[in-house]
Amino acid sequence: MTQAAVPGPLTRRGPRPLLLHLTLAMLKSSGSIAASTNWNAGLANSPQAAALRAALGDSGAGFPHAVLAEALRQDRALIAGIAAYRRHPYRRDLADPPVLWTEGGSRLLDYGAGGGAGRPVLFVPSLVNRAHVLDLAPGHSMLRWLAEQGVRPLLLDWGWPGEVERRFTLTDYVAGRLERALVAVGEPVVLAGFCMGGLLAVAAAGRRPDRVAALALLATPWDFHAADADQARALARLRPLLEPAMAFAGALPVDALQTLFAALDPFGVAAKYRSFSALDPASARARLFVALEDWLNDGVPLAAPVARECLEGWYGANSPACGAWRVAGLPVDPAALRLPALVAVPARDRIVPPQSARALAARIAGALLLEPAAGHIGMAAGSTAERVLWQPLRAWLAGL
Question: C-alpha distances in angstroms, 65 versus 26, 71, 291?
Answer without folding.
Answer: 17, 10, 38
